[in-house]
User: Fold this.
Amino acid sequence: MDITPIYDLRTRLRAAMIAGTNLLSEDFRLKRAIEAFAPLEAASPVFAKIGQLSRSLLDAQTADREGALLDAITLADAVLCTQGAVSADMPGEQHEIKKLEINSCAKVVTNAPYSVVKSLQEALTTSGSGHYSYVTETHEHSPELFADYRIKAAMVQALGSSYPELADTVEKWLKEEDSSLLPLLKNNFDPKGKKEMIRRIHVMEAIAPKESKDFLIGQLEQAEKEVRQAIIFTLRNDGGSEELLWQLAASEKGNCKKAAYHALACRESEQTEENFRSMYQKDPASAVRFLKHTYTEWSARLLAEKIEEMVKPFETDSGYFLSKERFELLQSLLLAAAGKTGKEITDALSTVISLEDRLNYPFENRKKKWETHIIMLHGFAYGYRGTNTEYVTLSEMLANIINHTLLRTADAETARLAIRAYEEKRSGKGAWEDYFGNAALGHLLLDEDVSEWMSKQPLTPKIAVLSRYSSSSRLQLSLYEAWKNISWSESRREFVMQDVDVNAEILDGYRINFVNPVGRDMTLAPAEIIIQCENERLDTLLAEYISQENNVYRDRLEAYFYKRALSVNNNLAYVRVLKRIGCKRCEGLAVQHFSHCDGSVSIWSLRNYEATELPGDRQQRYEEMKRVYELVLKGKIKLYGARDGKEAFLEYLEQLKQE
Assistant:
């Protein structure tokens, strides 16, 4: 049966809604559509009802034309919803029948006004000032809106935003979704596209690596440039693609070839290890570069073996030196060891630490140390950083490597290495202070009595005076560097260590994020010992230990930070923490801050400090700003504009009082 007439009739009925019912009697197109529909009325009672309602619209005696029009459209739509069909018997060329991907989101739409949804969609999909802040603020205050499938579709579109911050932020949010987002990510995917498609690939890999594998491999045939590179790199976690990766490593060029090797380095197989060992024999520098961002067992064994080979001669031959090229290779091997675990790599690092004095100047031509020491690799230097004044020692480099390994793995063997290195260096010779922070972290992870151990170290000035060592400031810096990535996680409800490994050779830097539990309450003894140091850098660690469920520590921290805010010149960092933890007072804070400002103070800075930074209620803030004004009158605080500034300050105080 040909049901084309009902489609035509529905089209005319919808047009009538736009034109208005007053013009129905003159709508000859509607009359023609009703006449064409008449033969179908005998086929079904429901068709007859549609015809009856439609003809009543042309009757001038019909009292409720609006109701009849709505009934006719509703009934026509309902009938057409039942008439859909799928058939393989299609005219013309043959088509492959594919399974329809269905969205399985728990919530398709949210109970939000259309105006809100529309505004958020526009902010995500169009350019304009203020869009980024609007999206982020909405996500913070109304996160439920982002469960709406319409908003998710707009978020996928936002991955191609011309405003990079918005695109990067949306990518981060989408990585927290599940596989139900895949249909949106696959829709209109362009294998020849640019940054937007790369972000889509990153999201696919994060939310559904197995489900998206076949789709991404299918895109390789047409994929180009950065998109091709990104797809190749995703194959590193797929056990069934190793043969394909070796084929790509042999056939690809440039960055795509590098992506294939970086992906292969992540594979845990004997064949891969054998191939990389062969590569090391031919081109050691390239092989090590690919091993830096992998955490396979074989890569740790290979690196350990090569490190031992390079440093062992220093144990027995006092006249042994390295060429500059070999020295650079040793640095690369050590840097690639960060994050690797196992007895072999731990023993290799232990050997290097024991030979630290010999390895500080391992060159053939030691008369030109300042020339050969100008070496930087991925942010770390072993020697001078381009000048003769900024020197980074081998012990600092080794401490950094051990710290990254502890943060990324929480490995017990590495923790024992950190403790052993500190104790051996302290009892003998060497830069023992550089190893202190990792030793403390090692005690922390091994669930030992870290508080008792730390209390015996010359960490605070008081203890340093009683000790034969007086390097408390260096120990404090070492502790900060080792512990700065420990914080309280509200989502996990525990203290965690975090680190990130950025592979700068893959696109604009592929990030691997590491999060490991500390397994200890940092607000107890460790925090109390840090408090005794009264060090601004270490105070930033205390601020990261704040948890909403620990009222005792919050009160203890409030008292300590308030005291510190009244003793430092620029107390803005302390004031912000006080406000974050819910401090209810502010007496003396603004006075301390503005009394120690260099030069004159602007009215804007006064207003901003009071309105956005200062804790306490309105009345308390008013009283504190009055005290600041009194110092202005006495000339102890200088304002921009002198006389005009005082008048503006007084006017501001009156406004604050009346609020």
Summary: The first strand starts at residue 376 and ends at 377. Confidence is low (pLDDT under 50) at residues 86-90, 364-390, 463-470. The chain has four domains: 4-81, 114-282, 285-513, 583-658. The radius of gyration is 35 Å.
